[in-house]
């Protein structure tokens, strides 16, 4: 029983740390803000979530298991919200997509929405 | 020490090494930028990696009390990213970066 738990904890730790490393490499190597955000908010959250689950399996204490799972749920809830907010703010502020991006869904709908916004801001200055 | 415990110690070392490496790579992104949202994103990633560190340290030393700190750190990181997003929205992209786009990363634009 203890052997299985040790091996499971170790495997989850290695997998979680590897996912975090993948996210960091993605942040460093991908070409623009939006693709970097895709690496950080998905692989990064999965990595730290797996590490917290490894801690929950290893501890076997009800209080710690509850807190670790609560932390995982909290990160799963907040990571998409913060990534979406940052992407929306960056797009509205005019940060361009990578030059070789295939498709920009917001080019028509969101692009028009940002233009008067930018004009309104430049009027104020 | 049984074989599974040796594997656990080995996994702790591997996880710490991988997390340190990813921390360094993310710090490089914080330093090189090139724009403000890139740095904000990398700082958010640093918080995530720090939470992973806390989990591994909790397994390694048994100090699971740090888990509370991890939850608080996640909350602070989330609020910081939201606040930075508002800050990004209030800054003009043109003023900050296009005029200094020496590498031409963001496409050519009338300057």
From TrEMBL, chain A:
<dbReference type="Pfam" id="PF03334">
    <property type="entry name" value="PhaG_MnhG_YufB"/>
</dbReference>
<keyword id="KW-0472">Membrane</keyword>
<feature type="transmembrane region" description="Helical">
    <location>
        <begin position="40"/>
        <end position="58"/>
    </location>
</feature>
<keyword id="KW-0812">Transmembrane</keyword>
<dbReference type="InterPro" id="IPR005133">
    <property type="entry name" value="PhaG_MnhG_YufB"/>
</dbReference>
<feature type="transmembrane region" description="Helical">
    <location>
        <begin position="64"/>
        <end position="87"/>
    </location>
</feature>
<protein>
    <submittedName>
        <fullName>Monovalent cation/H(+) antiporter subunit G</fullName>
    </submittedName>
</protein>
<keyword id="KW-1133">Transmembrane helix</keyword>
<feature type="transmembrane region" description="Helical">
    <location>
        <begin position="6"/>
        <end position="28"/>
    </location>
</feature>
């Amino acid at each position: 029983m203890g052997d299985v738990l040790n091996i499971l904890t170790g495997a989850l730790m290695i997998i979680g740390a590897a996912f975090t490393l993948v996210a960091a490499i993605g942040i460093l190597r991908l070409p623009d803000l939006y693709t970097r955000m895709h690496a950080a908010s998905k692989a990064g959250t999965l990595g730290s979530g797996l590490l917290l689950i490894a801690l929950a399996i290893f501890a076997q204490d009800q209080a710690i298991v509850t807190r670790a799972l609560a932390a995982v749920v909290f990160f799963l809830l907040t990571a998409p919200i913060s990534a979406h907010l940052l992407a929306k703010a960056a797009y509205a502020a005019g940060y361009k997509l990578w030059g070789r991006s295939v498709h920009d869904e917001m080019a028509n709908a969101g692009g028009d929405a940002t233009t008067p916004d930018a004009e309104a801001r430049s009027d104020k200055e | 020490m049984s074989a599974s415990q040796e594997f656990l110690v080995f996994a702790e070392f591997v996880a710490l090494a991988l997390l340190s490496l990813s921390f360094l790579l993310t710090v490089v992104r914080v330093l090189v930028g090139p724009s403000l949202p890139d740095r904000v994103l990398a700082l958010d990633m640093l918080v995530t990696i720090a939470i992973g560190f806390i989990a591994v340290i909790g397994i390694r030393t048994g100090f699971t009390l740090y888990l509370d700190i991890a939850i608080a750190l996640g909350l602070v990181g989330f609020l910081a990213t939201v606040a930075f997003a508002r800050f990004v929205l209030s800054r003009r992209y043109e003023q900050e970066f296009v005029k200094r786009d020496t590498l031409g990363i963001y496409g050519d634009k009338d300057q």
